[in-house]
Amino acid sequence: MRREIPRRESPKDQYKINERIRAREVRLVGDNVEQGVYSIFQALKMAEERELDLVEISPNAVPPVCKIIDYQKFLYQQKKKQKEQKAKSVKVVVKEIRFGPQTDDHDYNFKLKHARGFLQEGAKVKAYVFFKGRSILFKEQGEVLLLRFANDLEEFGKVEQLPVLEGKRMIIMLSPKKAAASTAPAAKPKVIKKPSEESPKEENGDNEAEKE
Q1: What are the beta bridge partners of residue 77?
Q2: Gap between the Cα atoms of 74 and 11, Å rounded
Q3: Is 99 helix (H, G, I), strand (E, B) or coil?
Q4: What is the pLDDT of residue 212?
Q5: Looking at the domain assignment, is residue 192 inside a domain?
Q6: 119 or 191, higher pLDDT
Q7: How many structural domains is the chain composed of?
Q8: Core-most of 85, 119, 130, 134, by most CB within 10 Å?
Q9: Between helices 139-152 and 105-120, what is the axis angle to 10°?
C-alpha cells in the first residue's frame, strides 16, 4: 500500500475560512461587528454583506472564535509581523578557542588576540582545554590557563561560565562587555576675552584714575 506523505501546511491553510468552518455556532469578535455568539449561517451572511471573509482565529475555543476581515490583508499583516519579530531577535554568535593543557606563550598570545577581536565584534567566546589520554591528569593546569585567559580579557569580556569539565574538555564561556556610555556632564569651554572685547566702562574708569 502506498504511503501518503503529509503535505506541508502553507500559511493560507493555517486558518479555516468561510464554508470550511464546520462549527454550528461561532463567537464573533472585532470592531466591525456586534460581538456575540451567532449561528454559522448568520456569521457567513454578515461576512458576505460586508464583502469580507469569516476567519476562524481560535478553533479550540467553545464556540470557535471568528473575525470578519479581509483574509488576504490579514495574511499579509501576519507575515509582516513575523518578519519584524525575526528582525528584532538577536542572533548570538559563539566563537570557539581551543587550547592544549601545555600551550606555549606564543600560541596562547595568538589565540588571545583572536578572542579579543571576537569579543569586540560582539561575539561570545567559548574557550576550552582539550585533554588527550593521560593529559587529563593536568586538569588543574588547564583550569589555571582558562582563568588566566579570562583575566587577560577582563577589559573586553565578562565570565559567563567558570571553567567546568565536560568529558575531555574543560570549558569557560565569555560574553562581550558593552561599552558604558559616559554620564558625566561635558565641561563648559573656558572663554578667554581678547583685549578688544574688554568693557569700555573699565577703560574709562582707568583713564579717570590717571587724570586724578
Answers
A1: none
A2: 11
A3: strand
A4: 42
A5: no
A6: 119
A7: 2
A8: 119
A9: 50
